[in-house]
Amino acid sequence: MALFEELKIFTGNSHPQLAEDICQYLNIPLGHSETFKFANDNTFVRIQENIRQRDVFVIQPGIDPVNDSIMELLIMIDAAKRASAGRITAVIPYYGYGRTDKKDQPRVPITARLIADLITVAGADRLLTIDLHAAQIQGFFNIPVDELTAMPILTEYFSEKNIDDLVVVAVDVGISKRARDLAERLGAPLAIVEKRRVSFQSAPQTLNVIGDVAGKTAVLFDDEIDSGSSTVNAANALRDRGTKAVYAVCTHGVLSAGSTERILDSDIRELVVTDTIPVFQPELDGRLTVLSVAQLFGEAIHRIHNGLSVGSMFE
């Protein structure tokens, strides 16, 4: 039984297609709103229907332009709060600034915590996201956080390929725990690429591959692929150690400038990402697969609205 009145879903300009797909799964219309900039670059939001005491979900990944996306989200939350929404859930498929999650050198910020504070102060009552870069980001919030995982979607995709001699390879030690989860789901062994970053701004230096990968097909796993340098360097290291083929897989395909060229020049047979971020890379046609998370988010929203367990989705 729903704890609040009618379910309403709104979106900013970051990823309207994902919001439409989620609404299609839930069999409800996308809420009417407008979000635009004035000539002075100020962002304006207007919710164009009654949301008093409604259960409102605002879908907005923090993607390029990141600062605009985040500001849109904050203003939409504020608009919903001032319109007397019963509950406001910020749905952030990709958490911008998530990689700045700790103070790893002198005099630097923890921007992921700052974003959490902004979302809370704006008026969000809870957060729904997927595969955060660092688990401790959940603890940056003083409101409930539901973190989904794309692991079942990725597992199903590779299970259907029926690849022999499969090995799951973590792109670095930090992602090895999640990579182990994927390996267990696929019934495959785990290997880890050990790497070192000489300086904050330099590309990582691949050092070693821990595990047996010779003669096997590798699924190179990370939570996100941004510049592609780490992934391509890891793929090169796997090639040098005798892998038959390399598939690269991640939840968030950021694919910033230069990444497409790096992937095209690499031995990566296929890049598999989800649509937490809108991906349009025609140059990668035939080598890029985008899996939808709309059903996953749609089911989670249904369960949150009706007071059901979200965790049981993954049991």
Largest sheet: 8 strands, mixed
Determine the strand fraction and express it as a percent band: 25-35%
Average pLDDT confidence is 94
Number of strands: 15
> What's the domain count?
2
Structure description:
The strands form three sheets. Strands 8, 9, 10, 11, 12, 13, 14 and 15 form an eight-stranded mixed β-sheet that branches. The chain has a five-stranded parallel β-sheet with strand order 1-4-5-6-7, with helices on both faces. It folds into two domains: 7-149 and 294-314, 3-Layer(aba) Sandwich (Rossmann fold), CATH 3.40.50; 151-291, 3-Layer(aba) Sandwich (Rossmann fold), CATH 3.40.50.2020. The chain has helices at residues 16-26, 66-82, 111-122, 151-161, 176-186, 229-240, 259-264, 294-305, and strands at residues 7-11, 33-37, 43-47, 55-59, 87-92, 126-130, 145-148, 166-170, 190-197, 204-210, 217-221, 224-225, 245-253, 268-274, 288-291. With 315 residues, the protein is of the alpha/beta class. Helix 4 (151-161) packs across helix 5 (176-186). It has eight helices and 15 strands. The two termini are 22 Å apart.
Short description:
This protein is α/β, with parallel strands linked by helices. Helix content is about 30%, strand content about 25%.
Tags for this entry?
8-stranded mixed sheet, alpha/beta, 315 residues, 15 strands, 26% strand, 5-stranded parallel sheet, Rossmann fold, globular, 2 domains
Architecture blueprint of SSEs:
Elements: E1 7-11, H1 16-26, E2 33-37, E3 43-47, E4 55-59, H2 66-82, E5 87-92, H3 111-122, E6 126-130, E7 145-148, H4 151-161, E8 166-170, H5 176-186, E9 190-197, E10 204-210, E11 217-221, E12 224-225, H6 229-240, E13 245-253, H7 259-264, E14 268-274, E15 288-291, H8 294-305
Parallel strand pairs: 1-4, 4-5, 5-6, 6-7, 8-9, 8-11, 11-13, 12-13, 13-14, 14-15
Antiparallel strand pairs: 2-3, 9-10
